[in-house]
């Protein structure tokens, strides 16, 4: 069994197991914690060019920002990193409305390849459609069986604008490329869309300052362990500990006495110091 690996972005964890090894009932895993590791665990990053980045920068520079959307941007955490600084983001849904959204289904090897609406070569589609349907030319082979579909979300007609020959008005139902014929079907449905208001406050200018803030609130020292408890912790540092024995439960009780970075009903992540080293500590119990 390979040890758990913390993913960049924090709360998500990937359990990797060798063939024939099932998921353990309990886990204790200690990973050495740098400033970057600590920051990644309790924040998300808004990358330049993303909608998250645009909204955050607008709210920072103008005092607030608004957007329309079908989902929250910052539903995992309200602590966001951008351009090296860290911000606390307030995201408030102010209104709700019903909107029509469009999607495109592309069938590989369709039973009926005759165009009923219109036929077009992939290269003659507008640039927006070519980007949305790029899987046609990026090496994805048609399936062996008929009717295999790829589903593509296009969003609202307002978001698409006049960039598409498929949405909202469908001009073609057959797309061709290198001798292959793909049937295109356009679907629409009504969904709820919200109006959101954003305000941001800078809480740290850099990762070192932010990590120190996290330490001040969450870091605790794990000490005074019995020999059996020490063996549990040291095995968890070297790999991971998976035995549900008395020593494991005793260590877990000590950890759970403290405030965690992210805690759910049966698992959580804590920041602790053991033998003068800091660890991000993942536990399932």
Plain-language structure description:
By secondary structure, the protein is of the alpha+beta class. The chain folds into 2 domains: 1-43 and 206-285, no CATH class; 99-193, no CATH class. The chain has helices at 35-42, 51-62, 127-132, 157-160, 207-218, 227-238, 246-256; strands at 5-6, 13-14, 27-32, 44-45, 65-69, 79-82, 85-108, 119-121, 148-156, 174-177, 180-204, 220-221, 262-263, 267-274, 277-284. Strands 4, 5, 6, 7, 8, 9, 10 and 11 form an 8-stranded mixed sheet that branches. Strands 3, 12, 13, 14 and 15 form a 5-stranded mixed sheet that branches. A two-stranded antiparallel ribbon has the order 1-2. Strand 6 (79-82) and strand 7 (85-108) form a beta hairpin. It is elongated and about 75 Å long. Residues 1-21 have low confidence and may be disordered.
The gist of it:
The chain is α+β, with helices and mostly antiparallel strands and 285 residues long. It has helices spanning 35-42, 51-62, 127-132, 157-160, 207-218, 227-238, 246-256; strands at 5-6, 13-14, 27-32, 44-45, 65-69, 79-82, 85-108, 119-121, 148-156, 174-177, 180-204, 220-221, 262-263, 267-274, 277-284. It has 7 helices and 15 strands.
Essential attributes:
disordered N terminus; five-stranded mixed beta sheet; eight-stranded mixed beta sheet; 37% strand; 23% helix; 2 domains; 7 helices; alpha+beta; 285 residues; elongated
First-to-last CA distance: 18 Å
The biggest sheet, with number of strands, parallel, antiparallel or mixed sense and barrel status, is: 8 strands, mixed
The residue ranges in which pLDDT falls below 50 over 5 or more consecutive positions are: 1-21
Kindly provide the radius of gyration, computed on alpha-carbon positions and rounded to a whole number of angstroms.
Answer: 25 Å
Tell me the helix content: 10-25%
* Assembly form of the protein: single chain
| Total count of strands | 15
How many independent structural domains? 2
- Label the overall shape: elongated
